[in-house]
Each structure stands twice: as structure tokens, then as C-alpha cells.
Design goal:
Keywords: Hydrolase. With 183 residues, the chain is of the alpha+beta class. 29% of the residues lie in helices and 28% in strands. α5 runs antiparallel to α6.
């Protein structure tokens, strides 16, 4: 997926969630910035995530993010790579050790723009996160990366309790639980 295809996917992206729909113009506008895929854009930049689920759609793989101290989906910075699908798959492999990862649909699964707090090296900024639906086998061993404190397959029935009021994760959970997501 190159920048041209990402623009096409974003332009044609449809969602029933108003908060997500309202973000689409910001994502499209960011594409015009030559450093949109780089951390050098201090106001905010593209990131990519993998919403990893098991084949039966009963569990999702979450990581306890070391810096943010929150349970989140796996993903990370584009670091100049305009192929966000590739970024999401690479981050999923690096952060989990899984080799059974399989893209469910090449189209965008979810969008979220969220604020990242300032730290010792970076000012407060936005992540424009493009998310993809990925399947993996639950019986494969997990490898915790240095970016994580823990990894866990979490049952859909326990996800809301673990992530608290993280609206974007609850939205992805709702999307996954809908009947139109094919097994």
C-alpha cells in the first residue's frame, strides 16, 4: 500500500462511528505533508497498528505498553515507511514474536487520532493511527519485546475491563464482534 493507495482507501473509508468519521479529513490533510510518516513531524505523524484476533473471534492480543502503562493493540511508528500495512505487520511480528499473522482484509479496519504525552525526548503530539485486522494462532508462543511489559490474549468478554474507557479499543472490539466480520 503506497501513499496513493492510502489516500484512496482513506477517501473511500466508511464507518458508522461518528467520532471516527470526523477524523478522516485530518488524515487526508496529513497526507499532504512531506514528513507525515516521520517522527520529525513534531505536531503529529502517521502510525500503524494491528488489531490481532484469533480465528474464532473470541480473543484479541494486547500489550501492556511499557511507556504508556496501558493495555493497547500492537503497533508503532512508520519511521518514513509510507506502506502502513507493512508497518503494522512488521510491528506485530516484532512486538509479539508471532509468525502465524494473517491479514484478514487489506483495507483499513479502524482509524484513531490520539494524543501522546510529552516525554524526555518528544513533545506532546498526535498519532494518526491506521489500523488493520490481523488473525493469528493463539497456541503460538509469545515473545515480549522491550517496548512491552506484558502480552496477553484477552477474551472479548474481558477486554473492556482491562482497557477501561479506551474508546478506540472498545470501537475495534465492537467492530470485530459484529456479524459482518467473516470468520
Amino acid at each position: 500500500m503506497d501513499k496513493r493507495l492510502l489516500k484512496e482507501f482513506l477517501s473511500n473509508y466508511r464507518t458508522p462511528f461518528e467520532e471516527e468519521k470526523a477524523m478522516i479529513p485530518d488524515f487526508l490533510a496529513l497526507l499532504d505533508d512531506p514528513i507525515a510518516f516521520s517522527r520529525d513531524r513534531k505536531e503529529g505523524h502517521f502510525t500503524a497498528s494491528a488489531w490481532i484476533v484469533n480465528r474464532r473471534r473470541t480473543h484479541t492480543l494486547l500489550t501492556l505498553h511499557r511507556k504508556l502503562q496501558k493495555w493497547l493493540q500492537l503497533g508503532g511508528h512508520a519511521d518514513g515507511n509510507q506502506n502502513l500495512l507493512e508497518v503494522a505487520m512488521d510491528e506485530a511480528r516484532e512486538e509479539s514474536g508471532l509468525t502465524s499473522l494473517r491479514l484478514v482484509d487489506r483495507f483499513i479496519f479502524d482509524l484513531d487520532r490520539h494524543l501522546i504525552p510529552a516525554n524526555a525526548t518528544d513533545p506532546q503530539h498526535f498519532h494518526y493511527d491506521v489500523r488493520f485486522l490481523i488473525e493469528a494462532e493463539m497456541d503460538e508462543p509469545l515473545i515480549i519485546s522491550p517496548e512491552s511489559k506484558d502480552l496477553a490474549w484477552v477474551g472479548f468478554d474481558m477486554t473492556a475491563e482491562l482497557v477501561g474507557n479506551n474508546a478506540s479499543i472498545l470501537r475495534m472490539l465492537e467492530k470485530t464482534s459484529r456479524s459482518e466480520i467473516l470468520l
